[in-house]
Amino acid sequence: MTIETRHPRVEIEFCTGCKWHLRAGWMAQELLLTFGNTIGELALIPGKSATFIVRVNGDVVFDRKDHGRFPEMKEVKQLVRTVIAPEMGLGHSDTAVKSAAGGAAGGAGGATGATQAHEEKKADAVAAPAPVTPAAQVDEDDEDSTTHDKECKTCV
After folding, report:
1. pTM value?
2. Where is the composition biased (Low complexity) (predicted)?
């Protein structure tokens, strides 16, 4: 018996040794609540080596190792939406994208100057990558550390 893959397919691969099960499950739940039946299939894929990767239709949209941090939920929703439903609005999760794309003054909502400045400031904060703590400064007992320069202690 062959099981046919449904598209769009969203995958969240996570490190079981790092105990990122709950983070992956929460993200999957949020994506299902946001996109409903627009997602054809959502898979949680147990992995290793401090992996946390989000894929849509097999293409990586976010890799924790490339960014040096976990994705924000708002960011994941925007990345997934861009692939599976570009015309779909995300409500408050769209704010930074519209502001970063040239300001909100002419866009939906017709923001005032003060509001536009505030939204642009928020967009800059979202766009700036989070600082990464050197591995030597990370507590070895921190199972949810976002800084894995090498294999995590349970992933060897």
Report:
1. 0.62
2. 125-137
Long-range contacts of 128-136 (CB under 8 A, 24+ apart): 129/67, 129/68, 129/69, 130/68, 130/69, 132/68, 132/69
Beta strands in the chain (DSSP E): 9-15, 41-47, 52-56, 59-63
Q: The tokens 């739940």 sit on which residue?
A: 29
83-119 tens-digit pLDDT: 999 998 888 777 654 433 444 444 444 444 444 444 5
DSSP letter at 36 equals G
Determine the residue type at 129: P
CA distances from 135 to 57, 91, 96 (A): 33, 37, 31
